[in-house]
Amino acid sequence: MVPDTDDELLRRIRRGDEQAFVVLYRRLQGPIYRFVLNITNLPPVAEDITQEVFLALIREDCGFDEGRGTLSAYLFGIARKLVLRHLERTRTLAEQEIQAEEWGNQTLAVRTDPMVDLLHNEGLAALRRAVLSLPRRYREVVALCDLEEMDYSQAAVVLDCPVGTVRSRLHRARALLLEKLQQKHDSGKKVHLLDPARSLI
Questions:
Q1: Which tens digits make up the pLDDT trace of 17-70?
Q2: Which of 25, 31, 54, 20 is nearest to 154 (CA)?
Q3: Nearest-angstrom CA–CA distance, 143 and 116
Q4: Per CATH, which fold does 1-96 belong to?
Q5: Can you give the pTM of this predicted structure?
């Protein structure tokens, strides 16, 4: 049996079908939660915003227009607006401690070979630190396009910008990530080489 599309599920939700809401929630809750977590680094905030996104969906005036993009892009857009509001209220993102263990078993789909090599060598924690150190506009495109594998046109709807802007930001973000991870990798090699405990003399 072919599963219902997101739009079909939304139509059923608007007719009062609770099971359709459960199916849609299970389908999109994880990706939206991860997106918010990758921007804020705060699991409680990611949980709250994810819940708010789905509450917005069940309101009669939710505002989704099929002609402007997919339902998932629309929900990611709501999540992004809520994240921006949160960041404006708190302004403490830069001071938050990066806790690598919170990423747990999340998987990354980074599509550039050097990035995959660095991820393999440096590990998930180093990549997470690097992503969180990026300016927000770059963090967003990495979270959407590389971590959630969203296509450029959907990401453009979420970010409310042209596809070309998504491409250029993602290109710049990947370059910055490679630079940050390569610097860490190179500094680790230097420390290793200069470690007196490993000297042959």
A1: 899 999 999 999 999 999 999 998 889 999 999 999 998 887 766 778 778 888
A2: 31
A3: 16
A4: Rna Polymerase Sigma Factor; Chain: A (1.10.1740)
A5: 0.67
